[in-house]
Amino acid sequence: MAPDPRFFGPAQPQTVAGLAAAVGAEVQGEVARVITGVAALSTAGPGDLSFLDNPRYRAQLPETRAGAVLLSPKDAPAVPAGTTALVTGEPYRAYARAADLLYPPAEPEPGVHPAAVVDEAATLAPGVRVEACAVVGPGAEIGENAWIEAGAVIGPSVVLGAGVRVGAGASVSHAIIGPRSRLYPGARVGQDGFGFAMGAGGHTKVPQLGRVLIGADVEIGANTCIDRGAGPDTVIGDGVWIDNLVQIGHNVVVGRGAVIVAQCGVSGSSRVGDFAALGGQVGVAGHLTIGAGARVAAQSGLMRDVPPGAEVMGSPALPIRRFMRQIATLARMTKDT
Amino acid sequence: MAPDPRFFGPAQPQTVAGLAAAVGAEVQGEVARVITGVAALSTAGPGDLSFLDNPRYRAQLPETRAGAVLLSPKDAPAVPAGTTALVTGEPYRAYARAADLLYPPAEPEPGVHPAAVVDEAATLAPGVRVEACAVVGPGAEIGENAWIEAGAVIGPSVVLGAGVRVGAGASVSHAIIGPRSRLYPGARVGQDGFGFAMGAGGHTKVPQLGRVLIGADVEIGANTCIDRGAGPDTVIGDGVWIDNLVQIGHNVVVGRGAVIVAQCGVSGSSRVGDFAALGGQVGVAGHLTIGAGARVAAQSGLMRDVPPGAEVMGSPALPIRRFMRQIATLARMTKDT
Amino acid sequence: MAPDPRFFGPAQPQTVAGLAAAVGAEVQGEVARVITGVAALSTAGPGDLSFLDNPRYRAQLPETRAGAVLLSPKDAPAVPAGTTALVTGEPYRAYARAADLLYPPAEPEPGVHPAAVVDEAATLAPGVRVEACAVVGPGAEIGENAWIEAGAVIGPSVVLGAGVRVGAGASVSHAIIGPRSRLYPGARVGQDGFGFAMGAGGHTKVPQLGRVLIGADVEIGANTCIDRGAGPDTVIGDGVWIDNLVQIGHNVVVGRGAVIVAQCGVSGSSRVGDFAALGGQVGVAGHLTIGAGARVAAQSGLMRDVPPGAEVMGSPALPIRRFMRQIATLARMTKDT
Fold this sequence. Notes:
- Chain A is α/β, with parallel strands linked by helices and 337 residues long.
- Chain A folds into two domains: 5-102, Udp-n-acetylmuramoylalanyl-d-glutamate--2,6- Diaminopimelate Ligase, Chain: A, domain 1, CATH 3.40.1390.10; 170-337, UDP N-Acetylglucosamine Acyltransferase, domain 1 (3 Solenoid), CATH 2.160.10.
- In chain A, the strands form six sheets. Chain A has a twelve-stranded mixed β-sheet with strand order 8-11-14-17-20-25-28-31-34-37-39-40. A ten-stranded parallel β-sheet of chain A has the order 9-12-15-18-21-26-29-32-35-38, with no helix packed on it.
- The longest helix of chain A has 17 residues, at 320-336.
- The N and C termini of chain A lie far apart (53 Å).
- The mean pLDDT of chain A is 96.
- Chains in contact: A-B, A-C, B-C.
């Protein structure tokens, strides 16, 4: 099944040789073949490019009918006769590049839709697209080729870098966003953090006087929330990937290249190190530091700092081997009873 | 307390006999009584219909002042003198039908609001309602009597079946939605999945070239997110019920009649079997299969497949009896110390 | 770093003496100093006010360069020479008041934006602000000085009290909201609860005939969802603070002053007592009662009632000491193996 042309347009056909050159893969097999689509190993046909990256799908390789498959050297011998092997050390990354060639993303037409509402005190660089029912507040600065989708709301004085894309119905306030970063639909950036002084007679709201600073090439998932700082700023580093429905509290600092999977919550003033990875539904208490490159398993609950490079799991989280030993111990004891 | 007429209009009075006939219940007691509202057992008066389904509320039955109560045969003897028993094997389902008779849902007036923005290259079947500040993109096909609420955004080429309802501020792209399905406010359907090739120097986005295919009679809760497929499609079967704030990753397949409670997350490429049920806040890792009819307790974390019909609990999840034994073992040992 | 004037305007300078009087603090040190900003202990300069509340940051006090610091009596001796101590029993609450004086929140200009859509059968009290692309339905009653941000949707017959603020892109239906309460962007209030009668052949939707009643001075976080009652109402008491991405099911009753941190889920018909506190990502099963003043640790899963004042933790939740003992027991046993 090739991608639906209603949504992705027709493929731009590529020769196997051309794709291999573009992605830096070595061709083993027929070079002249023309590729007109992409598909999974199990559904691909002779005109499709496929890839093998996750070993879970290795068993499908000998049966594939794909025209060409991107894969790593160790998998190349299992490619069936009718399929061209495109061998590379990074098959998934190579697939990403090839898919972009086959289905180049649509360039949006620039222009402000007549039903958009752009304050006269906002500044729009050339090439900006503002769709219907989007609202841009006074003092906002929208960078070159930025794309504001239908129904999105950009608050007063917000700065969007060049090529930023804000999804349908998303909202941004009190924020400065770097080039090429992208907010998916319904993302909420810059609202007040959850700051109040508790009291037996009622709670007193604490003014939230910081901003959200987002770097370059950041992805912020659908319906994800990033609160602005309480006084310090909330900071998201370059190249960070945040999935859907994530909560980032005030004053949090996320280092560059970090990955935060869906439904994680990072409480106020915690720090996530460069290239750290949080699995889905992880909870991080406030004022903690997660070291660079640390890996936190899904559903873990962090109540303490995590050293750089550590792997932790559980709620409360433990080093992953210790957690696994505890699981095993408990299982053994229970069988004994 | 009868439903607030500001929101639900006046009740359409029904005789007990008429309701019983409509829902297939047997009348035990006064037949001529007229019902003009619905209420819980504890607050109902002589003009109200109530029901008893959850045994937790059985103690309230003898004290109820309801005019009539839908309940199962075993509860009928406890109905007090002034109340008519409406006996049925499925009291909750019968209540649903009766409540629909008493408070028929408002039929929205068709028409495109002058402040809606419908692209001229979109197709609207008869009876469609598009509310203010909703946006419908080029090539979209909107089925008969579909209802697009205020501020919703329907992307290019999206197909909505007959009677589909899209809630306020929701957004849909790259999707084909079957008849009578409903998206609640703020739901996000069809945005890019979380697909990238990780790299030490930065992550490369992988084009997401699949769609979201949603069957008939599906409910998708408020602020829930369903990402489109990466190449394969994300598929939601007929009659699936998904609660609020749920995350469905790319390529996930949810079988018909499955139930997914609030704040669950199902990671990419996993499959949820027909009529399986996931309790609240469950997490499912990627590439797993949950068998038909399986039941997953709230907050469980799935790292392995679940066989059809199995009941599991815990994080990582275990067969529920084993989980309960482990809990008991640990409790016993701790008391011993 | 003082707050960014683009977003918060210039500070309204205050003398230390004036601030101390306004917040009820005792001055120890230079009184004449003028304060022109706020900052954290570690980044504050001579013109800034700071505060010390969380003991975690006590070590920063002797090194601070802040002009004045709000703190409790026991911390006063550690204030360095160049800094004025403002001593109070409630430093965080005092800081909230002082920050409001230094950065008074902007009063929005009243008026209905020409691109807003207010039904002619809606009622707007004086001073109301309705921003662009917001939609107000027929019969809605909007109280004095209420503020409806861009793209928000207020459904038919909804009642908003005086001073209510509804954030960008939020939606409200079937609800009555008390004075000064605030919905953050993307919050969803009043949609149908997750009510259906399960059946092997398919599920039957149960009409949701209740409302959402929200008290005074309530905060409802970004993208949080509060479903309306099924017949009874969903009720949120005065002064409740609900963080982002929280799910509140139908018929839930939250007592006044309760605090619900991000990503919690409270299932249908459960009750959260006055001033109870739920940590992040807590799950509460249906039909439970959490007593007044109870404290539930983050990520806990409640399957049983919690007595007033109790502290619980774990999934399923236990009294916190018992949970900690179990953790310790398991750790000890595992090391032994």
